[in-house]
């Protein structure tokens, strides 16, 4: 278990590096949510408790790199994890297209939910980077989920 | 895990998070999160070290050996020149930026200006913060104003020994006491989250024109007086409303910030 958590933590460090430094360097207004793909992967491929624990803990280092109110990121991603766990019983979440759609819509929901804490209409004021970010998140979500699957199945084998 | 136990876990987690949010009135519990930023600044430094090493190895050794082989040099020459031009353009752009910063520092020799470079930006689309490569050991401190020669960038909201998190003036949580330079009309400049600013609490009948320069007023004690914030881009005076709706264009191109200055303590006036 610790080796799986170690690999996931390394993946998380890579995600932070890319989200904080690389993506904004490409386009200052673009934000791609790689972590969401990780959450999708954990919800689909890991046992509930282990995945839940990692999602809850992993949101804390992410909180250091945002101006969002403390507690917002755990709130957003833990709720997303619960939602995915419920959906797992209803939809075949291992399908790549489904993971793309989940990445797209959950990204929009998480960004829009952040505006509940502030006075801002993100759809009106920055829809192009929002849409581009959601499309990119949709594209990377299956890849991140696959990485989680490989980590989990690799160590369990 | 059985559905029976998931529901209590869901409820307990939701309550815990809501309690966390409601008690987190101080938005930046710096100590624990600061450790993350501090660690991150070292990760970036360490990640750059091998690149510098291999870059030096290539430039000082391998490339010189290849230089003796004339044919290889001739074939590589065009590509090298292209890369060289690209590098020169980047160096020229950097030189221009640094020269502007140097000129600014020369223009205000008495100001305690501390230069810093940007390591990263906020992971969220909604919030606007920067991570700098300088921290408390370099003279940065919490609430330190951060500027560029073109104007105000923001203020430090969290600090570690080797990194600082800056709340940009375009963030929706940012508020800067300001004054219109020509008419001396006072207001509060707030970020709108989309890269623009609004000047609030200015009465509809006040003397404000498009293009007016807006500078910090010095009220509040965080920002020195006279730092350029931006210029008036549009004004709306809705009937039956007390205050005008004034939008500003920031003086600093927020999306293109690479180097900044922190202003040291006890500075009351910039000009």
Describe this structure in words.
The complex is a heterodimer of chains A (157) and B (271). By secondary structure, chain A is mainly alpha-helical. Chain A has helices spanning 2-26, 34-45, 48-63, 72-88, 96-114, 122-125, 127-156. In chain A, helix 1 runs antiparallel to helix 7 and helix 2 crosses helix 4. Chain A is globular and about 45 Å long. The mean pLDDT of chain A is 86. Chain B contains three helices and twelve strands; from the N terminus they run H-H-H-E-E-E-E-E-E-E-E-E-E-E-E. In chain B, the strands form two sheets. A six-stranded antiparallel barrel of chain B has the order 1-2-5-4-3-12. Chains A and B meet through helix 1, helix 3, helix 4 and helix 7 of A and helix 1, helix 2 and strand 1 of B.
Chain-wise SSE layout:
The complex is a heterodimer of chains A (157) and B (271).
Chain A: H1 2-26, H2 34-45, H3 48-63, H4 72-88, H5 96-114, H6 122-125, H7 127-156
Chain B: H1 3-23, H2 30-67, H3 70-107, E1 113-121, E2 129-132, E3 145-148, E4 151-160, E5 163-168, E6 175-180, E7 186-191, E8 197-200, E9 213-216, E10 228-236, E11 245-250, E12 259-263
Residue-averaged pLDDT of chain A:
86
In terms of quaternary structure, the protein is heterodimer
How many β-strands of chain A, per DSSP?
A: 0
Summarize the helix and strand pattern of chain A as letters: HHHHHHH
* Distance N to C terminus of chain B: 65 Å
Rg over C-alpha atoms of chain B, rounded to the nearest angstrom: 24 Å
User: In percent, how much strand structure appears in the residues of chain A?
Assistant: under 5%
Separation, N- and C-terminal Cα atoms of chain A? 12 Å
Q: What is the helix tally of chain B?
A: 3
- Average residue pLDDT of chain B: 82
Q: Main sheet of chain A, how many strands, which sense, barrel?
A: none
Low-confidence stretches of chain A: none
Structural class by sheet pairing and helices of chain B? alpha+beta
């Amino acid at each position: 278990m610790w080796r799986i958590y170690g690999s996931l933590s390394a993946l998380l460090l890579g995600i932070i590096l890319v989200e904080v430094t690389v993506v904004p360097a490409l386009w200052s207004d673009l934000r791609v949510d790689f972590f969401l793909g990780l959450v999708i992967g954990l919800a689909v491929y890991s046992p509930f408790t282990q995945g839940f624990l990692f999602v809850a803990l992993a949101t804390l280092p992410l909180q250091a790199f945002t101006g969002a109110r403390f507690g917002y990121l755990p709130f957003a991603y833990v709720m997303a994890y619960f939602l995915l766990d419920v959906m797992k019983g209803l939809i075949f979440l291992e399908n790549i297209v489904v993971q793309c759609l989940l990445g797209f819509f959950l990204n929009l929901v998480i960004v829009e939910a952040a505006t509940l804490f502030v006075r801002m209409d993100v759809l009106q004021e920055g829809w192009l980077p929002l849409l581009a970010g959601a499309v990119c998140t949709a594209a990377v979500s299956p890849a991140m989920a696959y990485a989680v699957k490989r980590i989990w199945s690799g160590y369990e084998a | 895990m059985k559905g029976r136990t998931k529901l209590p876990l869901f409820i307990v987690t939701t309550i815990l998070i809501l309690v966390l949010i409601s008690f987190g009135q101080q938005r930046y519990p710096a100590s624990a999160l600061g450790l993350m930023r501090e660690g991150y600044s070292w990760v970036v430094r360490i990640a750059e070290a091998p690149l510098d090493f291999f870059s030096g190895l290539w430039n000082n050794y391998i490339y010189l050996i290849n230089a003796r082989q004339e044919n290889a040099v001739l074939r590589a020459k065009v590509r090298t020149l292209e890369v060289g031009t690209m590098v020169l353009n980047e160096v020229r752009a950097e030189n221009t930026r640094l020269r502007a910063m140097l000129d600014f520092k020369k223009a205000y020799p008495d100001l305690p200006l501390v230069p810093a470079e940007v390591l990263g930006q906020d992971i969220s689309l909604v919030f606007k913060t920067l991570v700098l490569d300088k921290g408390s050991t370099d003279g940065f401190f919490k609430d330190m104003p951060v500027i560029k020669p073109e104007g105000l960038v923001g203020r430090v909201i969290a600090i570690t020994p080797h990194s600082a998190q800056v709340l940009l003036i375009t963030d929706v949580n940012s508020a800067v006491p300001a004054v219109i330079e020509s008419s001396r009309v006072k207001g509060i400049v707030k970020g709108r989250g989309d890269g623009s600013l609004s000047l609030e609490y200015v009465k509809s009948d006040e003397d404000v024109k498009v293009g007016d320069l807006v500078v910090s007023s010095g009220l509040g004690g965080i920002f020195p007086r006279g730092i350029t914030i931006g210029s008036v881009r549009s004004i709306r005076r809705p009937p039956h409303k007390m205050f005008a709706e004034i939008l500003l264009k920031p003086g600093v191109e927020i999306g293109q910030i690479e180097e900044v200055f922190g202003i040291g303590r006890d500075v009351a006036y910039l000009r």
